[in-house]
Write a structure and sequence with these properties.
The protein has 278 residues and is of the alpha/beta class. It contains 6 helices and 20 strands. It is elongated and about 80 Å long. The strands form 3 sheets. It has an 8-stranded parallel β-sheet, covered by helices on one side. It has a 6-stranded parallel β-sheet with strand order 3-6-9-12-15-18, with no helix packed on it. Strands 4-7-10-13-16-19 form a 6-stranded parallel β-sheet, with no helix packed on it. It has 2 domains: 145 residues, no CATH class; 105 residues, no CATH class.
Length: 278
């Protein structure tokens, strides 16, 4: 499935940011305000009537969006339905609602937790995708694919990708930290490796005690006014401490797994003559 989910999330984030700064309830919008801003963003219903040409965003939160005119920057609806009988330049994205298309859409129509319906005579240049099985009537023109969105598989794949990126970031940063530790503090690295090999079990016990004990000490310190700065500083240092401990642990395990090469020369067997002449 080639769903451009990043665009959906980007549009949703744009809508939330815009609402926090610009949006007002639908009932408080005046015609002059709409013309001045050249967009339709509201908590409630949004209408783009016949003859109107909106070059900005058309966003409805917890309401319906009806486009009878022309919207040139796509349509986003969250928790509501949309009915497009005019023209939309861009995507039509509906989250928790249905998308009914009887007009023209130049790109994709996506309905998450709803159904996309394309009536006879309508045109969609891109894909038609929805969580519920999309409906495309005979006589409708769809330039892309018509597919049902598998939200479970979609978000599972998204989560796996995020975890993979997180693992890669941790691995690379740990490798860089390990190289810096060995390069800048070679004696400390050698001493740590020797101590870990000499007392392997003791080292593990101390590490577990520090990993559990330091957060407890920090939380206890936060409960007192005098210890508040110490607790905050200790909590902030835990990330660095854990990263260094991870590098040191990897160094110790590596030295334990690799046996030291013997450099001493083999001794002569007992009783073997040296071959020297008397």
């Amino acid at each position: 499935m080639n769903l451009r989910i990043s665009r959906v999330f980007a549009l949703g984030l744009l809508a939330l940011i815009t609402l926090g700064v610009l949006a007002v309830p639908a009932g408080a919008q005046t015609l002059d305000d709409v013309r001045d801003r050249d967009r339709r963003i509201a908590v409630g219903n949004v209408l783009v009537d016949e003859g109107e040409n909106i070059s900005g965003a058309v966003v409805a939160i917890d309401g319906n969006a009806i486009v009878r005119g022309r919207a040139e920057n796509g349509v986003l609806v969250i928790s509501g339905d949309t009915r497009i009988s005019g023209t939309v330049v861009g995507d039509v994205v509906v989250v928790d609602g249905n998308a009914l298309i009887t007009g023209r859409v130049t790109e994709d129509v996506i309905a998450l937790q709803g159904r996309a319906i394309v009536r006879d005579g309508a045109t969609v240049r891109g894909d038609v995708r929805s969580t519920e099985s999309p409906t495309v009537e005979r006589g409708a023109v769809v330039g892309g694919d018509v597919e049902t969105i598998d939200t479970t598989g979609l978000f599972t794949a998204f989560g796996i990708r995020i975890l993979g990126l997180f693992w890669l970031a941790v691995t690379v940063s740990t490798a860089v930290l390990g190289l810096l530790f060995v390069a800048l503090f070679p004696r400390a690295a050698q001493a740590t490796a020797r101590a870990g090999r000499a007392s392997f079990g003791k080292s593990i016990g101390v590490g577990v005690l520090v990993a559990i004990g330091l957060p407890i000490v920090a939380v206890i310190a936060l409960a007192t006014v005098v210890g508040l700065p110490f607790g905050l500083g200790l909590l902030g240092a835990l990330g660095v401490i854990h990263a260094i401990a991870y590098v040191v642990g990897a160094l110790i395990f590596g030295r334990v797994m690799v046996s030291p090469r013997a450099h001493s020369e083999p001794s002569s067997p007992a009783g073997q003559s040296c071959g020297c002449s008397p």
